[in-house]
Amino acid sequence: MVIDAKDCNPNKIRDADHIKAFAKTLVDTIGMKAFGDPQVVMFGTGRVKGYTLVQLIETSDITCHFAEEDDSVYFDLFSCKPFASAKARDVFVTYFEPERVAVRVLQRGGSRGYTNTRFSRRRGGVNI
Hints:
alpha+beta; 8-stranded antiparallel sheet; globular
């Protein structure tokens, strides 16, 4: 699952404790098992400055980069175990309050394909 989010809440994407709480809530919500604590580290300068999150899970990993310059978040959840992508998306939106979200989900295991979803709070929260 990949999420590209724009115009997120600037205070929330700059708060390491909030980002760690997101990781823990996400892991619980989608029924995964964390392998260790979430790692949140500040990286970069200028356009790419922001926190990066890495949370290992037994079935793979969750990573995010939070770009402070334009309040964007780039999220990846890789898992060999199936999970409810809509629940994962909802946790993400609740924690970071993006104005625009593009979600792509690739189904593992062959020819099941992928889905694309776009969401805009500016358009009344309707998938576009």
